[in-house]
Every structure is written in structure tokens, then in C-alpha cells.
Amino acid sequence: QVQLVESGGGSVQAGDSLRLSCAASGRTFLSYTIGWFRQAPGKEREFVATIDWRGVSISYADSVKGRFTISRDNAKNMVYLQMNSLKPEDTAVYYCTAGARDPRDYWGQGTQVTVSS
Length: 117
Known about the structure:
By secondary structure, this protein is mainly beta. Helix content is 0%, strand content 52%.
């Protein structure tokens, strides 16, 4: 079992940066792939980024590639999403997820990110 708690969301202007954090608990965290997903108002949840347990295999959605960076600190049981050059279309609730094979097995409660133009 893994528990995930996101933080770091907020309201910013277009072009600004934010860093989301995800605090994980549970002895199996270190072996899990971690993901970030988001859901904008009236839209389905969508993939943002994933990182494997070693921090070697990383994937990004095309919409955030080059602007967002996912990272993890296994010693601190933390996962981060650095978001630069934010756009209004990045406005969404951002969720931290985890899983042994599918990173969508466990979900945090989400943190709101609002980007105004």
C-alpha cells in the first residue's frame, strides 16, 4: 500500500514556474513507478509524466515536454514535478500516482494549479 500527498499548487501568471511535490509513504514506494496526471475542468484526466523507480526511464506528454521535469528522491520518499513556462492550458488538478506495473494503481488527493494569461 502506498499513500501519496501532493503539495505546491497555486495560482500563477503565464510564463511563471511552480514545483509540485508528492510525499509518499509505504515500504513498497521505492520499487514503484511514479506518475503525474492532471484533470482540467470538463476534461478527462490525462497523462503528464512518469519516472521509474531508478529515475532512469522517464516519459512526458508532448504537451509538457521541454517545460516540465519529473524527478524523485528515494531517500526522502519524495517525487517532484518542476513546471516552467506555464500556460493557461496547464490549468488543472494535478495528481501524483504510483504503481508496481501501472503507475495509476494509487492516487493522491490532487493539488490545484491555475495559470492566468
